[in-house]
């Protein structure tokens, strides 16, 4: 009998804080909405809820930071060795607050993605994260905002945009209410787009790993 092997995309997730995006990815994989598997979770924050969520799902997880490793160079070495051990097909930055070293981006070229809670190129870049984004959107009087998933390069929020979803700004919105509405959209959008990546509809890097 011929058994056709279905390729399951191996995903490494990096997250610094709450990990609700990570949760959406893990749920999407478990519920088979994404033909993928979260093989490892890495956080620079040992107290992050993201690590606890990974533990609860029984997924291998690591707290790795400049502090735990004793410097930038050692951090990159450790990240590369953990990644090598888990052989991910892609890396997803789900609320990861650090830039990845160019050596990691080179090794995983076109295989590293980030999610940003606004319609890039607006409201992105260094220092533009979380509430700062939503406050800026409201202050500018925007009628809509949204979610962007993009490839990661060496500059914050500036890699190739692969998908965007719009979210309305409603009268009376506060940065908190806007954050909540955008985050809700993120959770659905992540599953949609990761499933397209896993199905080969959105290209993953061709460099051999
Ligand atoms: C999200 O808003 C995401 O767009 C941004 O960081 C936030 C992560 O939220 N990159 P959570 O930690 O997954 O709840």
Features:
single chain, 209 residues, Rossmann fold, 7-stranded mixed β-sheet, 7 strands, 37% helix, binds 5-O-phosphono-beta-D-ribofuranosylamine
What this model shows, in words?
- With 209 residues, the chain is an alpha/beta fold.
- It is built from 7 helices and 7 strands, in the order E-H-E-H-E-H-H-E-H-E-H-E-E-H.
- A 7-stranded mixed β-sheet has the order 3-2-1-4-5-6-7, covered by helices on one side.
- The longest helix is centred in the last third of the chain and has 24 residues, at 175-198.
- The protein is globular, with a radius of gyration of 17 Å.
- The two termini are 31 Å apart.
- The structure holds 5-O-phosphono-beta-D-ribofuranosylamine.
- 5-O-phosphono-beta-D-ribofuranosylamine binds at residues 15, 17-22, 94-95, 115-117, 183, 186.
Q: What CATH architecture would you give?
A: 3-Layer(aba) Sandwich
Broad structural category: alpha/beta
What is the helical fraction, as a range of percent?
Answer: 25-40%
How many whole angstroms does the radius of gyration measure?
17 Å
Q: Catalogue the ligands.
A: 5-O-phosphono-beta-D-ribofuranosylamine
Kindly report the spatial arrangement of strands forming the biggest sheet.
3-2-1-4-5-6-7
Helix-strand pattern: EHEHEHHEHEHEEH
The major beta sheet can be summarized as: 7 strands, mixed
| CATH structural fold name | Rossmann fold
CATH superfamily: Formyl transferase, N-terminal domain
Q: Count the beta strands.
A: 7
Which overall shape is indicated by the principal axes computed on the Cα atoms?
globular
- The number of helical elements comes to 7
CATH class: Alpha Beta
Distance between the termini: 31 Å
Mean pLDDT figure: 94
């Amino acid at each position: 009998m011929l058994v056709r092997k279905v390729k399951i995309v191996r995903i490494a997730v990096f997250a610094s804080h709450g990990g609700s995006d990570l949760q959406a990815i893990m749920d999407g994989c478990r519920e088979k909405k994404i033909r993928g598997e979260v093989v490892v979770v890495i956080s620079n924050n040992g107290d992050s809820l993201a690590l606890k969520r990974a533990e609860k799902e029984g997924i291998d997880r690591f707290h790795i930071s400049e502090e735990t490793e004793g410097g930038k160079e050692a951090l990159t070495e450790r990240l590369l060795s953990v990644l090598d051990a888990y052989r991910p097909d892609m890396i997803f930055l789900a609320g990861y607050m650090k830039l990845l070293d160019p050596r990691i981006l080179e090794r995983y070229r076109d295989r590293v993605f980030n999610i940003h809670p606004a319609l890039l190129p607006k409201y992105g870049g260094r220092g533009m994260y979380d509430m700062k984004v939503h406050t800026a959107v409201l202050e500018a009087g925007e009628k809509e905002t949204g979610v962007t998933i993009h490839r990661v390069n060496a500059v914050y929020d500036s890699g190739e945009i692969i998908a965007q979803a719009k979210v309305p700004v409603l009268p009376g919105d506060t940065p908190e209410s806007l954050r909540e509405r955008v985050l809700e959209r993120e959770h659905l959008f992540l599953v949609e787009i990761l499933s397209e990546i896993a199905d080969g509809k959105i290209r993953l890097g061709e460099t051999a790993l």
